Amino acid sequence: MILQALNKHYEDLVKREKIARLGWAKAKISYALCIDGDGGLEQVVSLLSDAEPKKKPQPRQFDLPAPAKRTVGIASNFLWDNSAYLLGADNKGKPERSAKCFRACAAFHHELLDGLESDGAKAILRFFDNWNPAQASEHPALREEWANIVAGANLIFRVNGAYPYKDEAIQAAWQRYYNTESGEKQQCLITGQPDVIEAVHPSLKGVDGAQSSGAALVSFNAPAFCSYGKEQNFNAPVGKSAAFAYTAALNYLLADREHAQKIGDATVVCWAEGAEPQYQGLFLDVTGGGSSLGLTDNDLYAAVKLLAQGKPVEELKLDPQRPFYILGLSPNAARLSVRFFYRDAFGRLMKNVNDHNERMKIIRPAYDKFETIPLWHMLRETVNPNARDKTPSPVMAGATARAIFTGTPYPVSLLENAVLRIRAEREVTRGRAAIIKAFYLRSPHEGCPEEVLQVSLNENSTNEAYALGRLFSLYEAVQLAASPGIKATIKDKYFNAASATPAMVFPVLDNLCQKRLRQLEPGQRIWYEKQILKVAEILGDAYPARLDLPRQGSFDLGYYHQTQKRYEKKEEA
């Protein structure tokens, strides 16, 4: 299913001229080796972009012959490569290997270009025949950029001011080589058509945490993974053309860093059938808090609501029935793991995401810039802010993403991690309060009823745990009023015990509050006494001995809502 969807996406991208055709690939090139008709190196031209302030110059992209599959062996690219292959020198301190790379590159170009009546082909072959790798560092054309050239930068040939890869004769030579069919044809499991099977699929690059040289989505590189005497990817036969297509499409998605999200340890890409970019842009704006489409918050919400109702958005040319795909990939040594894969109509997906955003709505502090809480921000609320690695639990993050996209209940681990951070830091943030609210709205529990699962303070709620949270917030407000500038409040000492065993803690807090009330001015004291009395009437004469986890959630929401009400009063004043 995943490979078929990516194969179809490749065809859509080719139609839109967004991706290279079969046998070709996007390559980032830093320098051009300018040679004359006799193969002599005249100069080296930098192809790096002009650097913006505080930004590193970027290589230029070319549509070039597809790169060779490399692991530990030596395999040359055609017309472009790094300095070890094109110049026979690099900075890795292994001159013998660099010399082998150069000889392999020369032999490969002779194999493809011998006999061609092309000036560009003849010049390249003369370059390989005459070049002396041992004297490369002394060549006047290389001295100025030598350190950068041998550091792994990709190089390309330029003959008499023209790029040989544009020469029709050279293009035809490469296509003949690439399309050479060797081996028995079998049925491709992606297309269903007979094709020569690709033993080793092209590498995938751009997944955070995976090997920088590239990793594989389909790989059988150990005997333990093989069966029935099949070797390598013959265990899952994919034709040469289909292997190129799905990897090219996925590499294109991963290379677009503006539209690739990070959820836990997973790098997430998405696309719509037809490869129209507005679907991808709207999805990322809604889930990631971005503004790639340039829409205002009101326009964005209006578009999502129309799609959720199954209606098209004419201005953006969005069809709610358009199939949409989301793929999350996690690193796993030389392979990639599929963390999650989701396919549905775009309108249904937007309905599920919109429902999630509605559940996550909660009163927003003035300093919080997000109108709705993005998925990455939500997951960050489950991580210790002082930790060196701020990546949320991969399993929990993947399960949460699946729950949001499919509209199923949130994983219990999401709630547990959010509550754990509240207990560890004694801090009920907007994101953590929203997680509690959303979790119990999707998975109802009598201990955390709907009357407390509101956007803002519900003064009419009679829920005991919710009232206790409100009362704790008021007690903290009295302490802050009586001792302005105090660094540690009752929250730092009593919050966890008050939310778990209120009968043991609140009598102490009652006495402390009475003492602090006497320190306030009469008008201020009377105002606080009225507020406390309103909440105390809900509780009666006795406090509950214990609160279970759902009731602790009600306590946390009561504390958060009442605290935000306090700040709201200050802003009004």
Quick take:
With 573 residues, the chain is α+β, with helices and mostly antiparallel strands.
Q: State the oligomer.
A: single chain
Global structural class: alpha+beta
Mean pLDDT score: 90
Low-confidence stretches: none
| Bulk shape | elongated
* Lateral strand order in the biggest sheet: 3-2-6-5
What is the percent of helical residues?
A: 40-55%
The major β-sheet equals: 4 strands, mixed
State the distance separating the first and last CA atoms: 59 Å
> What is the number of independent domains?
4
Detailed description of the structure:
By secondary structure, the protein is α+β, with helices and mostly antiparallel strands. It folds into four domains: 2-178, no CATH class; 185-254, no CATH class; 259-345, no CATH class; 463-573, no CATH class. Helices cover 44% and strands 12% of the residues. The protein has helices at 2-15, 83-86, 95-113, 119-130, 146-149, 168-178, 240-255, 277-288, 297-308, 346-359, 375-380, 394-406, 412-425, 430-442, 464-482, 490-500, 502-517, 522-539, 549-572; strands at residues 24-29, 31-35, 41-46, 60-65, 80-82, 154-159, 185-187, 194-196, 261-263, 266-272, 323-332, 335-345. The strands form four sheets. It has a four-stranded mixed β-sheet with strand order 3-2-6-5. Strands 9-10-11-12 form a four-stranded antiparallel β-sheet, sandwiched between helices. The chain is elongated. The mean pLDDT is 90.
